[in-house]
Amino acid sequence: MSRKIWVLDTTLRDGEQVPGAKLNVQQKLEFARQLQQLHVDMIEAGFPASSAGDFQAVQEIARTVRGGISVTALARAVKNDIDSVYESIKLAENPFIHIVLGTSNIHVEKKFSRSRDAVLEMGVEAVKYARTLLPEVQYSTEDASRSEFEYLWRTIEAVVKAGATIINIPDTVGYAVPEEFGELIRKIHERLKNLNDRVMLSVHCHNDLGMATANTLSAIKNGAEKVECTINGLGERAGNTSLEEIAMALKVRESFYQSHTDLNLKEIMRTSRLLTYLTGLDVQVNKAITGENAFAHSSGIHQDGLLKNKEVYEIMSPEDVGVESMELVLTARSGRHAFRHVMEKLGFYAGSTDEFEGLFAAFLRMADDKKEVYDHDVFALLSAARKQSGGSGHLYELESLRVVTDDEAPTATVKLKREGVSLEDTRSGDGPIDALYGTIRALTGLEVELLDYKINSMSRGKEALGRVHIRLKHQDNIYTGKAMDTDIIKASAQAFINGINAVLLDTSEKEKKAPAGE
Ligand code: KIV
Ligand code: ZN
C-alpha cells in the first residue's frame, strides 16, 4: 500500500536565508498563496523572533493560508522565540511550533558551551513550554547526522516524553550519504514506533554534497513520514532538498517507494517561476524538473525517438508539472479574461475587484506602450504593483537620465523624485554604468555596494532585463533590483533604483513597531 508523505515547504524560512533572496511581506504572502495552490501540507513561514518584518510576514501568512494547511515558524529553545512563534501563527488553521536545538558534540560544546545534559534539559523545558501554548510541537535535532547516536536518541526520547509530536532529523551541513542516512532513519523509526507511534518522523536535508534529494528519498524508504523541502532547492549554501524533485521522484517511482504526496503537481512550474521572479535568483538551466532544459531534447536521435513514441526518452511529461507549451502574447485588445488568465497562470492572486481593475488599467497602459505584452512583462507589472502596495511610499522614481560615454570621462546626469521632490546630479565614472550608479548613489545618499550586475536580452531580443545585487556598506543583507526596458541604460538605472527601493522597504518594515507579544 502506498504511504502518504507529508510535505513541509520551508522556502520562506530556510530558503529565504539565501543572500539576495530577501522578500518583503507582500511577496511572501503571494508565494504562500501559491504554496496553497500547490497543496503542500505544511508551510514554515519564517523565523519571527529575528525581526518585526519577519513576524509580520508570518502573521499575515497564518491569517491568510487556508485549505487545511498547517503553518509553523522557527524558534530556538528559548521562551522568547517560542512566544514569538505562538503569537505570529496562532490564527492559522493548524498551527504548530517548531523548536530547534543542536545535538552534535560540535553544537553542544562550541555553540552552547554547556554539558550535554544541560542542553538536553533546555530542549525538554522548551517543548514543555510550547505544549502549554499549542497541541502540536515539532522538535529538530540540529546537526543530527553528525551526532553521537545514543545522545541523539536520548534527546528524542526525552522531548517526546515532554510532548513533542513531530521529530525532525536534519542533515544541517549536508554531510550525510544516502545509505548511512537511511540507516539512521531506520533505527530512529524503529525505536520511535515503540516509544510513541503517534509521533511523526520527519527529515530535513541540505545539499552540500549534492545528495539532499537522495538522502531524503533514502529516509522515506526507511520510514520517514514527512519531508522538509524548498522550491528550486533554494536554501543556504548549496540549498535544501528540492520539493519538485521529491514530488516527481515519488510520482514516477511510486511503486519502488510505495509512497506518494498529495501535491498538486501541475502547480510545480508555476510555483518555481513565481519564486524565481520574486527573488531574482535564476534556476540552473539543467536543474531537474524546473530547469529550462529539463524537458528539452536536442540530440537528433532523441528527437527522432520522441516523435515515434514519447515514452522512448520521456519518464514524465512537461504537462505533468504544469509547463504551458504556448505563451499567450497579450495586446491592448486582450480583455480582462485573458489578463486574469495570465495573471493566475503566473501564480499571482487576482485580489479584490478594485485591485484587479487597477492592475488591468496598468496592463492596458503597458500594452499601449509596448504593443505586445509577454509573461515576463506581466510578472514585472504585478510584482511592482504588489511591492508598492506593501511599501511605505518613500521610494525613488526615475524622472530622467542622460549618459554620455567616451574614452576619457563617461558622465551621467540623473534626475530622481522622492516624496514629490526632484533631485538632480551629474557624476563621471570608469564607464557609463559606473557613472550612472555613482550618480544615483550620490543622489540617494546611501552607501550602496554593487555586488553583481547583469544585463540580458528578453522578448526575443527586443528588450533588456537589468538585474543587480546590492548591499548597504557594513551590512549583511543582500537586495535584488530588476527592471526591463528597450534601452539598456534605462533598464540598468531602473534596476539599481529598484534595488535601493528594496533596501528602503525593508528598513521601513523593520522600523515598524513589533506587535504585542513579540
Ligand atoms: O538545517 C537545519 O538544521 C535547520 C533546522 C532549523 C531544521 O534548518
Ligand atoms: Zn536547514
Automatic annotation (TrEMBL):
<protein>
    <recommendedName>
        <fullName>2-isopropylmalate synthase</fullName>
        <ecNumber>2.3.3.13</ecNumber>
    </recommendedName>
</protein>
<feature type="binding site">
    <location>
        <position position="204"/>
    </location>
    <ligand>
        <name>Mn(2+)</name>
    </ligand>
</feature>
<dbReference type="GO" id="GO:0030145">
    <property type="term" value="F:manganese ion binding"/>
</dbReference>
<keyword id="KW-0028">Amino-acid biosynthesis</keyword>
<feature type="region of interest" description="Regulatory domain">
    <location>
        <begin position="397"/>
        <end position="518"/>
    </location>
</feature>
<keyword id="KW-0479">Metal-binding</keyword>
<keyword id="KW-0808">Transferase</keyword>
<comment type="similarity">
    <text>Belongs to the alpha-IPM synthase/homocitrate synthase family. LeuA type 1 subfamily.</text>
</comment>
<dbReference type="InterPro" id="IPR013709">
    <property type="entry name" value="2-isopropylmalate_synth_dimer"/>
</dbReference>
<keyword id="KW-0963">Cytoplasm</keyword>
<dbReference type="GO" id="GO:0003985">
    <property type="term" value="F:acetyl-CoA C-acetyltransferase activity"/>
</dbReference>
<comment type="function">
    <text>Catalyzes the condensation of the acetyl group of acetyl-CoA with 3-methyl-2-oxobutanoate (2-ketoisovalerate) to form 3-carboxy-3-hydroxy-4-methylpentanoate (2-isopropylmalate).</text>
</comment>
<dbReference type="InterPro" id="IPR002034">
    <property type="entry name" value="AIPM/Hcit_synth_CS"/>
</dbReference>
<dbReference type="Pfam" id="PF22617">
    <property type="entry name" value="HCS_D2"/>
</dbReference>
<feature type="binding site">
    <location>
        <position position="240"/>
    </location>
    <ligand>
        <name>Mn(2+)</name>
    </ligand>
</feature>
<dbReference type="InterPro" id="IPR000891">
    <property type="entry name" value="PYR_CT"/>
</dbReference>
<keyword id="KW-0464">Manganese</keyword>
<comment type="subunit">
    <text>Homodimer.</text>
</comment>
<dbReference type="InterPro" id="IPR005671">
    <property type="entry name" value="LeuA_bact_synth"/>
</dbReference>
<dbReference type="InterPro" id="IPR036230">
    <property type="entry name" value="LeuA_allosteric_dom_sf"/>
</dbReference>
<feature type="domain" description="Pyruvate carboxyltransferase">
    <location>
        <begin position="5"/>
        <end position="269"/>
    </location>
</feature>
<dbReference type="InterPro" id="IPR054691">
    <property type="entry name" value="LeuA/HCS_post-cat"/>
</dbReference>
<dbReference type="InterPro" id="IPR050073">
    <property type="entry name" value="2-IPM_HCS-like"/>
</dbReference>
<dbReference type="Pfam" id="PF00682">
    <property type="entry name" value="HMGL-like"/>
</dbReference>
<dbReference type="InterPro" id="IPR013785">
    <property type="entry name" value="Aldolase_TIM"/>
</dbReference>
<keyword id="KW-0432">Leucine biosynthesis</keyword>
<dbReference type="GO" id="GO:0005737">
    <property type="term" value="C:cytoplasm"/>
</dbReference>
<feature type="binding site">
    <location>
        <position position="206"/>
    </location>
    <ligand>
        <name>Mn(2+)</name>
    </ligand>
</feature>
<feature type="binding site">
    <location>
        <position position="14"/>
    </location>
    <ligand>
        <name>Mn(2+)</name>
    </ligand>
</feature>
<comment type="pathway">
    <text>Amino-acid biosynthesis; L-leucine biosynthesis; L-leucine from 3-methyl-2-oxobutanoate: step 1/4.</text>
</comment>
<dbReference type="GO" id="GO:0003852">
    <property type="term" value="F:2-isopropylmalate synthase activity"/>
</dbReference>
<dbReference type="Pfam" id="PF08502">
    <property type="entry name" value="LeuA_dimer"/>
</dbReference>
<keyword id="KW-0100">Branched-chain amino acid biosynthesis</keyword>
<dbReference type="GO" id="GO:0009098">
    <property type="term" value="P:L-leucine biosynthetic process"/>
</dbReference>
